[in-house]
Amino acid sequence: MTARGLSGGQATLAIARLAIVRAVRGKALWIAAATAVLPLIVVGVQASLGHTAETMWQTAFMLTLLTLPIVPSILIGPSLSDELEDKTSAYLWSRALPRWTIIAGKLAGLAPVAAAIAMVSLGVAWLVMGGPGKVPVDTAVRGLAGVAAPALVASALVAALATLVPRHAVAVSVVYLLFVDKVVGELPIKLRYVSIAFGGRSVAGFDDLAAAPGALSLLVVGSVAVAIAITRIGRME
Protein backbone atom coordinates (compact mmCIF):
# COMPACT_ATOMS: atom_id res chain seq x y z
CA MET A 1 0.00 0.00 0.00
CA THR A 2 1.42 3.41 -0.94
CA ALA A 3 1.63 6.32 1.46
CA ARG A 4 -1.22 7.92 -0.48
CA GLY A 5 -3.42 5.01 0.54
CA LEU A 6 -2.67 5.18 4.25
CA SER A 7 -5.40 6.26 6.61
CA GLY A 8 -4.63 8.55 9.55
CA GLY A 9 -4.46 5.59 11.91
CA GLN A 10 -2.19 3.59 9.61
CA ALA A 11 0.10 6.57 9.10
CA THR A 12 0.27 7.15 12.86
CA LEU A 13 1.20 3.51 13.45
CA ALA A 14 3.85 3.57 10.71
CA ILE A 15 5.45 6.73 12.10
CA ALA A 16 5.31 5.28 15.63
CA ARG A 17 7.14 2.14 14.52
CA LEU A 18 9.76 4.18 12.70
CA ALA A 19 10.27 6.40 15.76
CA ILE A 20 10.84 3.35 17.98
CA VAL A 21 13.29 1.79 15.53
CA ARG A 22 15.28 5.01 15.32
CA ALA A 23 15.30 5.34 19.11
CA VAL A 24 16.59 1.79 19.58
CA ARG A 25 19.33 2.32 17.00
CA GLY A 26 20.37 5.68 18.43
CA LYS A 27 21.94 6.77 21.69
CA ALA A 28 19.04 8.78 23.11
CA LEU A 29 17.13 5.75 24.40
CA TRP A 30 20.13 4.40 26.27
CA ILE A 31 21.00 7.79 27.73
CA ALA A 32 17.39 8.11 28.88
CA ALA A 33 17.45 4.64 30.38
CA ALA A 34 20.65 5.48 32.25
CA THR A 35 18.77 8.15 34.20
CA ALA A 36 16.74 5.35 35.78
CA VAL A 37 19.84 4.22 37.66
CA LEU A 38 20.05 7.28 39.94
CA PRO A 39 17.05 6.43 42.17
CA LEU A 40 18.31 2.86 42.48
CA ILE A 41 21.75 3.96 43.64
CA VAL A 42 20.41 6.41 46.23
CA VAL A 43 17.79 3.99 47.57
CA GLY A 44 20.39 1.23 47.73
CA VAL A 45 22.63 3.47 49.84
CA GLN A 46 19.71 4.43 52.09
CA ALA A 47 18.77 0.79 52.54
CA SER A 48 22.31 -0.08 53.60
CA LEU A 49 22.22 2.77 56.11
CA GLY A 50 18.97 1.56 57.62
CA HIS A 51 16.66 4.37 56.51
CA THR A 52 12.94 3.89 57.01
CA ALA A 53 10.75 2.56 54.22
CA GLU A 54 8.79 5.82 54.14
CA THR A 55 11.97 7.84 53.61
CA MET A 56 13.28 5.51 50.92
CA TRP A 57 9.95 5.46 49.07
CA GLN A 58 9.67 9.23 49.06
CA THR A 59 13.27 9.54 47.91
CA ALA A 60 12.76 7.03 45.10
CA PHE A 61 9.61 8.76 43.88
CA MET A 62 10.99 12.30 44.05
CA LEU A 63 14.23 11.33 42.30
CA THR A 64 12.30 9.54 39.56
CA LEU A 65 10.12 12.61 39.14
CA LEU A 66 13.22 14.82 39.12
CA THR A 67 14.96 12.85 36.35
CA LEU A 68 11.73 12.41 34.39
CA PRO A 69 12.06 15.65 32.32
CA ILE A 70 15.27 14.37 30.75
CA VAL A 71 13.70 11.26 29.23
CA PRO A 72 10.92 12.71 27.00
CA SER A 73 13.12 15.71 26.18
CA ILE A 74 15.91 13.66 24.62
CA LEU A 75 13.59 11.06 23.11
CA ILE A 76 10.85 13.17 21.53
CA GLY A 77 12.55 16.55 21.20
CA PRO A 78 15.19 15.52 18.66
CA SER A 79 12.85 13.06 16.93
CA LEU A 80 10.50 15.90 16.00
CA SER A 81 12.88 18.84 15.73
CA ASP A 82 15.31 17.00 13.42
CA GLU A 83 12.55 16.34 10.92
CA LEU A 84 11.27 19.90 11.11
CA GLU A 85 14.74 21.41 10.84
CA ASP A 86 15.96 19.05 8.10
CA LYS A 87 12.66 19.42 6.22
CA THR A 88 12.24 15.65 6.00
CA SER A 89 8.69 16.20 7.21
CA ALA A 90 8.02 17.98 3.92
CA TYR A 91 8.40 14.62 2.17
CA LEU A 92 5.74 13.11 4.40
CA TRP A 93 3.39 16.00 3.69
CA SER A 94 4.01 15.65 -0.05
CA ARG A 95 2.72 12.08 0.23
CA ALA A 96 -0.64 13.37 1.44
CA LEU A 97 -0.26 12.15 5.00
CA PRO A 98 -2.29 14.18 7.50
CA ARG A 99 0.13 16.43 9.33
CA TRP A 100 -1.31 15.54 12.73
CA THR A 101 -0.11 11.98 12.24
CA ILE A 102 3.48 13.13 12.68
CA ILE A 103 2.70 14.33 16.21
CA ALA A 104 0.43 11.38 16.95
CA GLY A 105 2.95 8.87 15.62
CA LYS A 106 5.91 10.26 17.55
CA LEU A 107 3.91 10.35 20.77
CA ALA A 108 2.34 6.93 20.24
CA GLY A 109 5.78 5.41 19.73
CA LEU A 110 7.95 7.27 22.22
CA ALA A 111 5.71 8.57 25.03
CA PRO A 112 4.97 5.02 26.32
CA VAL A 113 8.72 4.35 26.27
CA ALA A 114 9.33 7.41 28.46
CA ALA A 115 6.59 6.27 30.84
CA ALA A 116 7.97 2.72 30.93
CA ILE A 117 11.47 3.94 31.82
CA ALA A 118 10.08 5.96 34.74
CA MET A 119 7.94 3.05 35.94
CA VAL A 120 10.80 0.55 35.73
CA SER A 121 13.07 2.92 37.64
CA LEU A 122 10.59 3.37 40.48
CA GLY A 123 9.45 -0.26 40.40
CA VAL A 124 12.97 -1.65 40.75
CA ALA A 125 13.71 0.86 43.52
CA TRP A 126 10.59 -0.41 45.30
CA LEU A 127 11.92 -3.96 45.09
CA VAL A 128 15.37 -2.88 46.26
CA MET A 129 13.90 -1.30 49.38
CA GLY A 130 12.00 -4.49 50.23
CA GLY A 131 8.89 -4.55 48.00
CA PRO A 132 5.48 -5.14 49.61
CA GLY A 133 7.15 -5.98 52.90
CA LYS A 134 8.17 -2.33 53.24
CA VAL A 135 5.76 -0.37 51.02
CA PRO A 136 2.17 -1.61 50.43
CA VAL A 137 1.27 -2.62 46.90
CA ASP A 138 -1.48 -0.01 46.61
CA THR A 139 0.98 2.72 47.57
CA ALA A 140 3.45 1.41 45.00
CA VAL A 141 0.76 1.37 42.30
CA ARG A 142 -0.14 4.98 43.04
CA GLY A 143 3.53 5.87 42.83
CA LEU A 144 3.91 4.13 39.48
CA ALA A 145 0.87 6.01 38.18
CA GLY A 146 2.38 9.18 39.63
CA VAL A 147 5.46 8.89 37.40
CA ALA A 148 3.85 7.30 34.33
CA ALA A 149 1.17 9.97 33.88
CA PRO A 150 3.61 12.91 34.14
CA ALA A 151 5.93 11.16 31.68
CA LEU A 152 3.12 10.98 29.13
CA VAL A 153 2.10 14.59 29.71
CA ALA A 154 5.71 15.78 29.61
CA SER A 155 6.08 13.98 26.28
CA ALA A 156 3.12 15.94 24.90
CA LEU A 157 4.61 19.18 26.19
CA VAL A 158 7.97 18.39 24.58
CA ALA A 159 6.18 17.76 21.28
CA ALA A 160 4.52 21.17 21.53
CA LEU A 161 7.82 22.89 22.33
CA ALA A 162 9.53 21.05 19.46
CA THR A 163 7.07 22.59 17.02
CA LEU A 164 7.50 26.04 18.57
CA VAL A 165 11.29 26.10 18.90
CA PRO A 166 12.57 23.10 16.89
CA ARG A 167 16.19 24.24 16.90
CA HIS A 168 16.36 24.33 20.70
CA ALA A 169 13.69 21.77 21.58
CA VAL A 170 15.79 19.67 23.97
CA ALA A 171 17.29 22.58 25.91
CA VAL A 172 14.01 24.47 26.22
CA SER A 173 12.14 21.32 27.26
CA VAL A 174 14.64 20.38 29.97
CA VAL A 175 14.83 23.93 31.35
CA TYR A 176 11.05 24.32 31.42
CA LEU A 177 10.26 20.93 32.93
CA LEU A 178 13.15 20.86 35.36
CA PHE A 179 12.93 24.42 36.61
CA VAL A 180 9.80 26.34 35.61
CA ASP A 181 7.34 23.45 36.01
CA LYS A 182 8.94 22.28 39.23
CA VAL A 183 9.00 25.78 40.76
CA VAL A 184 5.38 26.43 39.77
CA GLY A 185 4.41 23.10 41.31
CA GLU A 186 5.87 24.18 44.66
CA LEU A 187 3.98 27.47 44.84
CA PRO A 188 1.08 27.62 47.34
CA ILE A 189 -1.27 29.05 44.71
CA LYS A 190 -3.78 27.61 42.26
CA LEU A 191 -1.32 28.07 39.38
CA ARG A 192 0.42 24.93 40.60
CA TYR A 193 -2.48 22.89 39.23
CA VAL A 194 -0.99 23.35 35.75
CA SER A 195 2.32 21.88 36.93
CA ILE A 196 3.10 18.40 35.69
CA ALA A 197 5.24 17.68 38.76
CA PHE A 198 2.44 18.74 41.12
CA GLY A 199 -0.06 16.55 39.26
CA GLY A 200 2.29 13.58 39.52
CA ARG A 201 2.82 14.06 43.25
CA SER A 202 -0.93 14.35 43.76
CA VAL A 203 -1.64 11.14 41.87
CA ALA A 204 1.02 9.38 43.94
CA GLY A 205 -0.40 10.73 47.21
CA PHE A 206 2.41 13.13 48.10
CA ASP A 207 0.38 16.35 47.93
CA ASP A 208 -2.79 17.80 49.37
CA LEU A 209 -4.69 17.47 46.10
CA ALA A 210 -6.61 14.21 45.71
CA ALA A 211 -5.58 11.74 43.03
CA ALA A 212 -8.60 12.32 40.76
CA PRO A 213 -8.22 16.13 40.49
CA GLY A 214 -4.48 15.64 40.02
CA ALA A 215 -5.11 13.23 37.16
CA LEU A 216 -7.63 15.64 35.65
CA SER A 217 -5.07 18.43 35.86
CA LEU A 218 -2.54 16.30 33.99
CA LEU A 219 -5.14 15.38 31.38
CA VAL A 220 -5.96 19.03 30.72
CA VAL A 221 -2.29 20.05 30.46
CA GLY A 222 -1.52 17.13 28.14
CA SER A 223 -4.53 17.82 25.93
CA VAL A 224 -3.61 21.49 25.57
CA ALA A 225 -0.02 20.55 24.70
CA VAL A 226 -1.14 18.08 22.02
CA ALA A 227 -3.56 20.66 20.60
CA ILE A 228 -0.76 23.23 20.37
CA ALA A 229 1.59 20.75 18.69
CA ILE A 230 -1.02 19.68 16.12
CA THR A 231 -2.10 23.26 15.42
CA ARG A 232 1.47 24.43 15.07
CA ILE A 233 2.59 21.66 12.75
CA GLY A 234 -0.48 22.19 10.61
CA ARG A 235 0.62 25.77 9.92
CA MET A 236 4.22 24.98 9.05
CA GLU A 237 5.47 25.28 5.50
Task: Itemize the secondary structure elements and their pairings.
Layout: H1 8-25, H2 28-34, H3 37-48, H4 53-67, H5 70-86, H6 88-94, H7 100-128, H8 137-164, H9 169-186, H10 196-204, H11 211-234
Helix pairs in contact: 1-7, 2-5, 3-4, 3-7, 4-7, 5-7, 5-8, 5-9, 7-8, 8-9, 8-10, 8-11, 9-10, 10-11
Description:
This protein has 237 residues and is mainly alpha-helical. The chain has one domain (3-234). The chain contains eleven helices and no strands. The model has no long low-confidence stretch (mean pLDDT 87).
What is the H/E order? HHHHHHHHHHH
Cα-based radius of gyration, to the nearest Å: 19 Å
Low-confidence stretches: none
Extended strand count: 0
Structural class: mainly alpha
- The number of distinct helices, counting runs of at least 4 residues, comes to 11
Helix fraction, binned, reads over 70%
Q: How many structural domains in the coordinates?
A: 1
Strand content: under 5%
The 3D shape can be described as globular
What's the N-to-C terminus distance?
26 Å
Could you tell me the mean pLDDT? 87
Query: Strand count, sense and closure of the main sheet?
Result: none
